[in-house]
Write a structure and sequence with these properties.
Bound molecules: (4S)-4,5-diaminopentanoic acid
Strand order of the largest sheet: 4-10-9-8-7-5-6
CATH superfamily of the largest domain: Type I PLP-dependent aspartate aminotransferase-like (Major domain)
Radius of gyration: 21 Å
Order of helices and strands: HEEEHHEHEHHEHEHEHEEHHHEEHHEEH
Largest sheet: 7 strands, mixed
Helix content: 25-40%
CATH architecture of the largest domain: 3-Layer(aba) Sandwich
Mean pLDDT: 94
CATH topology of the largest domain: Aspartate Aminotransferase, domain 2
Shape: globular
Structural class: alpha/beta
């Protein structure tokens, strides 16, 4: 149950200059900036887009997190997706403690790895074998190396505003922090690498077809987020994923579906099950590690046989399949495996998203909100957002005002209009009430702009 924040009134007025965080968070962040570039270990955490000074988080329980000033927030970031059951779920914590007590890692095969691999194979009809790695970046980077190894082709097609981790050749028209800080292409990436990546608008099959025509016979793969979650929340248009499947099959290229964010968030078996599309390779992460560093990529056995030690495509990692991470992932997934889990969570999340839509309407604020399973998001726009161009054309001042008011009233959202939001099974009616009360003020502030 929510408790009032000791250092903050139940409701707080927002002004353009009001500091978003308390003195302890500010002091800790100032100290971190002396020893860590930008004070953060991943750029979007710096809250640079919203004026800097992120709250320094000291603990989390269920749907709530607490910062250094003992301010409490309902959390819709949830560690950027992994925490399907909220913070410190007792079953996940217990699994971690039991595994840790037996040793933190061996860099050698352990029993749990094959159990997690089998769980992923059972959930995803397109996967026959899976390789565990430590991050979504590694999963996507390795899947594309495998695609190039298997096809002997070089070009990769991706979508503007999609983010597949920070491998050199994927930092081209990238989403997430790259979009947040208006750095879609990173410095330090050789032009030769970037030239092998072609980026096209999301949900635009004609653009994909044109890219195939331009690079006739040399496209190794199309990589796509089946729900774009790194340019805000942008669902696939009807026929988009199936169309990509058809084009890849026709062109003898591989379809790589990046379910790092959507896998086990929207359905058991991911968005590909909901869309009834079978990719050649699937990338997973986040939920499959339950909050620890576990990711994976998988596909048919003949394709995976290109990987060392069976084949010539090399990929490795000291922490790959780490037993503590695997135990956390298995516990996280077990809790989601109960029949009806995703439909019941989506229904609960619907109370929140419907409530937000109603409030926006009452305040006369153009607002788009959507959800699939436990993933959701919103834009201040008068029309549905379908790609990065329309996401970028949404009302940024309205978003910033909304974000600031929500933060000051105890709701923790991603500090970027180009990120998705998440829901957990620890969220319920009390959190929805708290969020809608904050949103009522936030929409009023937006309406007053
Ligand atoms: N790339 C993540 C958001 N889509 C951010 C990761 C982090 O900062 O932890």
């Amino acid at each position: 149950m929510p408790r009032p924040s000791p250092s903050r009134p139940a409701t707080a007025a927002v002004t353009a200059t009001a500091p978003l965080t308390g003195p302890k968070s500010q002091a800790l962040f100032a100290a971190a900036q002396q020893v860590i570039p930008g004070g953060v270990n991943s750029p979007v955490r710096a809250w640079k887009r919203v004026g800097g000074n992120p709250p320094i988080i000291t603990s989390g329980t269920g749907a709530w997190i607490t910062d250094a000033d003992r301010r409490r927030y309902v959390d819709y970031v949830l560690s950027w997706g992994p925490l399907l059951h909220g913070h410190a779920h007792p079953a996940v914590v217990k699994a971690v403690q039991q595994a840790a007590a037996k040793g933190l890692g061996f860099g050698a095969p352990t029993p749990g790895e094959a159990v997690l691999a089998q769980t992923l194979i059972d959930a995803f009809p397109s996967i026959e074998q899976v390789r565990l790695v430590s991050s979504g970046t590694e999963a996507c980077m390795s899947a594309l190396r495998l695609a190039r190894a298997a096809t002997g082709k070089e070009v990769v097609i991706k979508c503007d505003g999609c983010y597949h981790g920070h491998a050199d050749h994927l930092l081209v028209a990238a989403g997430s922090g790259c979009a947040t800080f208006n750095q879609p292409d990173s410095s330090g990436v050789p032009a030769a690498f970037a030239s092998l990546t072609v980026s096209v608008p999301y949900n635009d099959l004609a653009a994909v077809e044109a890219a195939f025509a331009k690079h006739q016979g040399n496209v190794a793969a199309v990589i796509v987020e089946p729900i774009a979650g790194n340019m805000g929340f942008v669902p696939p248009a009807p026929g988009w994923l199936a169309g990509l499947r058809t084009l890849c099959t026709r062109e003898k290229s591989l379809l790589v579906i990046d379910e790092v964010m959507s896998g086990f968030r929207v359905a058991w078996g991911g968005m590909q099950v909901l869309a009834n599309v079978k990719p050649d390779l699937t990338c997973l992460g986040k939920t499959i590690g339950g909050g620890l560093a576990v990711a994976a990529y998988g596909g048919k056995k003949d394709l995976m046989a290109h990987l060392a030690p069976l084949g010539g495509c090399y990929q490795a990692g000291t922490l790959s399949g780490n037993p503590v991470g695997v135990a956390a992932g298995l516990a996280n997934l077990k809790l989601a495996s109960k029949p009806g889990f995703y439909t019941s969570q989506e229904k609960k999340l619907g109370v929140l998203t419907d409530g937000l839509a109603k409030l926006a309407k009452r305040h006369g604020v153009p607002f788009q909100v959507g959800r699939i399973g436990t993933m959701w998001g919103f834009f201040f726009h008068d029309r549905p957002v379908t790609d990065f161009a329309s996401a970028a054309a949404s009302n940024q001042q309205a978003w910033l005002t909304f974000f600031r008011t929500m933060t000051l009233n105890g709701v923790y959202l991603a500090a970027s209009p180009f990120e998705a939001a998440f829901w957990s099974s620890a969220h319920g009616p009390a959190e929805v009430r708290h969020t809608l009360a904050a949103a009522d003020q936030a929409f009023a502030a937006v309406a007053a702009l």
